[in-house]
Amino acid sequence: MENILSLLLPVLAVQLILLVTALIHCIRAEHTLGPKWLWIIIIFCVSIIGPVLFFVVGKRRDR
Hints:
The protein is mainly α. It has helices at 2-28, 36-45, 49-58.
């Protein structure tokens, strides 16, 4: 049981950091590729992949 916990804690910490960071960036962004409410749902519901998707696809880059 202790081995499983020691393996899961770093993954959970990374997931929490990604979730919070993606939410902050999404809320503060003036424009995103798609509606913000949809990105917030994706960030929350798609586990660790949702925040990564937001940073790769959803975050609009102004040029």
